[in-house]
Amino acid sequence: MKPVQILHLECSPRPEACSSRLGRHLSAALQAETTAPVQVRLRALGVEPLPALSAAYAGSLILPIAQARARYGEQLALSDALCEELAASDVLLISAPVHNFGIPAVLKNWIDWVVRRDVTFALTAEGKIGLLADRPVLVAVTSGGAMFRDPPAQPDFFRPYLRAALGGVGLTRIEFVEAPGLAFSAAPEEAVDALARDWIRRRARPAA
Ligand SMILES: Cc1cc2nc3c(=O)[nH]c(=O)nc-3n(C[C@H](O)[C@H](O)[C@H](O)COP(=O)(O)O)c2cc1C
């Protein structure tokens, strides 16, 4: 049986991060849902960040892919590997805290390495078109303060940005599992555990 591939990005710099804790609950639940073997590719971007973009990579994005490869060759290897990893995944799982109303810089850096002309998106007369097959994207997101409220207490650049950036490469099936207000919780780990249990319960028995 073909293994289910989960690409899991952890984006907090904190080894004991609540977002990582929440994401690992979701990962375990996803694995429990299937009878197929599961392979998890974990990238701890928060503690082992990717390098900053190179001049070669930035230069390659203004060229069609054949010219980019001819000119920059092996200098595109990291982006190639990250794009292949993403393309090979059946599920993308992202664990990330809110940092200054948006996504952590390490996640933005990963996005910059994988939003790749003629590899994950194409330029057409009508604009950019995503080239990846759509797949579920699950985002475990934590915040210290009151985020994700209506009316908003803080501006939310996290969810709209991720929807736009991932949508640009063809990934539109994005679900956010939000754990806001953790700075006000006496037991943030327990709060995250309860939230995960609730999400798993709702997923097993969706509302009619
Ligand atoms: C650099 C930085 C910026 C932050 N910006 C925000 C913010 O804009 N809004 C908010 O509610 N919390 C903010 N926080 C708090 C974190 O989102 C919060 O502590 C979260 O629970 C951390 O999750 P983690 O345990 O996964 O690292 C910020 C934290 C850091 C380190």
Features:
208 residues, alpha/beta, Rossmann fold, 5-stranded parallel sheet, two-stranded antiparallel ribbon, binds flavin mononucleotide, EC 1.7.1.17
How is this structure best described in words?
This protein has 208 residues and is of the alpha/beta class. The chain has a single domain (4-204), classed as Rossmann fold (3-Layer(aba) Sandwich). The protein is 38% helix and 21% strand. It has 7 helices and 7 strands. The protein has helices at 18-33, 55-60, 65-72, 77-88, 105-114, 158-167, 188-204, and strands at 4-10, 38-44, 91-97, 121-124, 127-130, 136-142, 173-179. A 5-stranded parallel β-sheet has the order 2-1-3-6-7, with helices on both faces. The chain has a two-stranded antiparallel sheet with strand order 4-5. Helix 6 (158-167) links the parallel strand 6 (136-142) and strand 7. Helix 1 packs parallel to helix 7. The mean pLDDT is 97. It binds flavin mononucleotide. Residues 12, 14, 17-19, 97-101, 142-145, 147, 154, 182-183 line the site of flavin mononucleotide.
